[in-house]
Amino acid sequence: MKRLLVLAAIVLAACATKELSIADLSERTAEQHLLAALKDYADGDYAVAALRFHQALAAGLTYDRDRVIAYKHLAFIDCATDKIAACRDEFRHALKIDPNLDLSEAEAGHPVWGPVFAGVKAEKDARQ
Fold first, then answer.
1. Neighbours of 68 (CB within 10 A)
2. Amino acid 27: pLDDT
3. Backbone angles phi, psi at 72, to 5 degrees
4. What pLDDT band is residue 127 in, cutting at 50, 70 and 90?
5. Contact predicate 99/124, CB 8 Å
6. Contact, 41 vs 73, CB < 8 A?
7. At what angle do helices 113-127 and 84-97 cross, to 10 degrees?
């Protein structure tokens, strides 16, 4: 109950100075960067998406699955821009968090990052 009162006081104080949305209360900065990065990626704005994925990771994404998503998309961007070593590193980060990570059929079929991911995963499996 005490937490609810404190939260209500914060909301009321914030409303006095600016309009506050539920999104402001429910999403952390890291998650907001991740959502924006995914939108930029979908829109084909890969440079901005990469920056925002890095911002999301630096801000401390809460969930492992979100960190995996960020690293995986950074790998896609690196592979697509012919930064194969960086692409491998991003896939390694993702696989360190989720050793069972697999790409979707469409992702795995990509002519550049599909084979890079398969190689990194095989390398990881060989070490175990």
1. 18
2. 62
3. -65, -45
4. confident
5. yes
6. yes
7. 50
81: DSSP letter: T
- pLDDT for the residue 10: 40
Q: What share of the chain is helix, strand, coil (3-state, %, to 5)?
A: 75, 0, 25
What is residue 12's predicted lDDT score, i.e. its pLDDT? Answer: 41
End-to-end CA distance of the chain: 49
Q: Determine which of 8-12, 98-102, 111-115 has the lowest per-residue pLDDT on average.
A: 8-12
In this structure, what token pair is assigned to residue 82? 């012919």
The reported pLDDT for the residue numbered 128 is 75
Q: Are 119 and 89 in contact (CB under 8 A)?
A: no
